[in-house]
Amino acid sequence: MEIHWVHAGDIPEDDRERAGERIRSLAAGHNDLIDVRITARASGHHKHGDKEVRIVCEARGREIVAARSLEDPALSLNEALDAFEREVRRMRERRTEQRSERPAAPPHLGIVDRIFREEGYGFVLTDGGEQVYFHRNAVQGALDFDRLAEGDRVGLNLEAGDEGPQATVVLQAPPDAMAP
After folding, report:
1. Do domains 2-100 and 108-172 have the same CATH topology?
2. Domain range 108-172, CATH class
3. Which uninterrupted H or E stretch holds 170?
4. What is the dihedral of CA 8, 14, 15, 21, to 10 degrees?
């Protein structure tokens, strides 16, 4: 991660150093902050003071922007940093929530019993002892129909077919799936 200062001559050097330390500390142990640009300029807005500090950060998957305007550029920098830290934490919390919302494992587990590669279908023997038909188009995720072998552990979703149960989705079994 790199920090770039633009027109920051009005901000004392020691305040810039502390700001750099805060940003590096926020980035420590993470690889989501790529490039940070801190710009100080006259705000042009008479109600909010005359010095705006804007922090623009290129982060993985998005851009984070925090800006504050006060009469004192060092205070503007400090408040912009506070807002920037809050935004980074929100971004990381959302990512954590998205990771925990992963889809549930397939409701049924079994092993590949027979494969008819030329015809494009096969059968899975579920842990419940049921023989289930599957078509090559039902094989998804990290599995490849042409590489499936008899005895491979799989997860599957079932529905009633014309001649008995059939798998609508065949996936790699979860790593913690025990054999029956």
Report:
1. no
2. mainly beta
3. strand 164-172
4. 110
Altogether, the residues listed in the chain come to a count of 180
pTM here is 0.54
What are the structural domain ranges in the chain?
2-100, 108-172
pLDDT in tens, 37-56: 999 988 766 555 578 999 99
Where is 15: in which H helix or E strand?
Answer: helix 13-27
Q: Which two tokens stand for residue 111?
A: 């092993």
Per-residue pLDDT tens digits for 1-41: 899 999 988 899 999 999 999 999 999 988 899 999 999 98
Identify whether the C-beta of residue 43 lies closer than 8 Å to the C-beta of residue 71: no
**Regarding the domain delimited by 2-100, which CATH topology (the fold level of the hierarchy) does it fall under?**
Double Stranded RNA Binding Domain (3.30.160)
